[in-house]
Amino acid sequence: MMAKNNHPELVAQLTAGISTLTSSEEWQRHLDFQSRFHHYSFGNVLLIAAQCHRATRVAGFNAWRKLNRFVRKGEKAIWVLAPMVYKNAEDGETDRVIRGFKFVPVFDIAQTDGEELPSICNRLDGDDPKGRYAQLLTVARSIGFTVEDHEFNGNTNGDCCHADHRIRVETTNTPAQRVKTLAHELAHALLHESYDNRALAELEAESAAYVVCQVLGIDSGDYSFGYVATWAGDGDQAIAGIKASCEHIQKSAAAILQAFEPAAADEAA
Prior knowledge:
- The protein is of the alpha+beta class.
- 48% of the residues lie in helices and 17% in strands.
- It has 2 domains: 2-34 and 120-268, no CATH class; 58-114, no CATH class.
- A hairpin with a 4-residue loop joins strand 7 and strand 8.
- The longest helix has 18 residues, at 198-215.
């Protein structure tokens, strides 16, 4: 039966795809682009999350301009702490010293318009001719979650709220992307009511979504390979993370795929 099949060949296929991507020129261009962004301290990460929990990529007003993107009029700034650095001229020293901190405004990419940024996570094209999304809705209901269409007005494709037992999926995406997103959020619903490491949680959810989509005949590699590798940090870390979380990934994918067993049996007949 499908639910008992852990699809180890698909997990191996996922790691192979990540390995290929992270040894490519495309990945190097991605890393070069990422290096232009400031790496925020843990405290500032908490500040950003408290003010805009859906923020994915933040930068200052002028930093966005250099990337040919512009903050939309009326957008509310996200405030972070920046060090006040001065030259230490005492005793002939020219070292720079920090003399306090000040709040400075930054903005999330969802608050900007302009040139498209380099991306290794390409949203999926295609339809859902076999009604996979509707079948995934039954999975959500079976675990006590509602699913809502939502327009996020940014890069977010979906989210999962355990407190409200609610999943939201971006309504403007293609049917194939919506299937992938719902599979991803279902994995969060099954695995991550609480977690200490968001990067690991995203790796597990997207890996499970990849397995589910492959079984359902939707190739999500163009999105999943880059998504997993980005959250993990690089290709080697992603592959190590998948291997360490293999049991979680396979169990959650199998739980989601249970709803498709009757349909799979009919298609095989």
